[in-house]
Amino acid sequence: MDDPIRHPLAYARVLRGWSQSDLVGRLHRAAAGRPEGLRSGTDKAAVSRWENGRKTPSIESQLLIADAFDVPISDLERDPWPHWLPGRDDPAPLGAAYTVQALRDAQRVAMNRERRTFLTYSALALAGLASQWAALEPDRLTTALGGRRVEDELVDWLEDTSTQLTALPTEQRQHTIKLMDAHLTTVTDLLEGARYSEATGRRLHLLAASLSSTCGWYRFDQGHHYAAGKLWNAALTNAHTARDRDQGAGVLSDFAYQSIWLGQPGSAVEPLSQALIHTRHPTARSLLYLRRARAHAALGAAPSATVIWPLPRLPC
After folding, report:
1. Which of 103, 185, 232, 271 could anchor a disulfide with 216, C-beta 3.0 to 4.6 Å?
2. CA 243 to chain centre
3. How far is it, in rounded angstroms, from Cα 111 to Cα 115?
4. pLDDT tens per residue, range 62-105
5. Which residues span the domain enclosing 52?
């Protein structure tokens, strides 16, 4: 499991090599440097409460924190706490131009096992990604990339092998994850450098989305939440380019499940609501409704919509 850094404030400190005491000292100096000669009143216990999410700093304290990190006031006005802090990460946008970039970025993070466990995407980032997924039309797949032409037989083999790997028992995942990673690398290489028809390209993007989603769940199970998020971002980008709304909705549901699991149910509601608007498959809609209900339950609120059609009966 990752060595967890679970809050953006802690990560911003680590980036600069500051301890909590160092940050307290900088806040005191920032307060003393104000024309009105403020005293911050901040101590290590206050910083610890902020980093554990037990308390949100006051507006006055946020201004001092921004001063300590050289963050412009305009960032505080644009984004709520703690999303304006330095060191945040944003998902790759949707569109054919970003599919390979998202895949390469996800693979790099998955292999390096970066420590930024807190860096699941924020509620704002997920809402923006869901909005893009709902509104953007995917670009047409190009048919003339450099390199060799991909034949259907190769894609058949990749699809069949991926299905077999996914179906293997859970206890064998320590072995299958390496094979799944290798398959994802192969598909990414083909997307980046091979020639293929539009139909074959769509199959490759769907396969990339499926592999990225599965590899993301492997990282989730291992506690590598930052890597899982990167892989799901790649899955959503490729599902969108392949014009598969249901698969994209499933990935948004994965993001939502992760947010609920990490105690951030507020980040799950908007992506699930966007996904429900554009998803028609009954099974997919059932999962989205169930996870949105769970998010509302975690928030202590009633669901914003009522299910008016019967859910499919689950096997005993």
Report:
1. 232
2. 20
3. 12
4. 888 888 888 888 878 777 787 778 766 566 665 666 677 677 77
5. 8-78
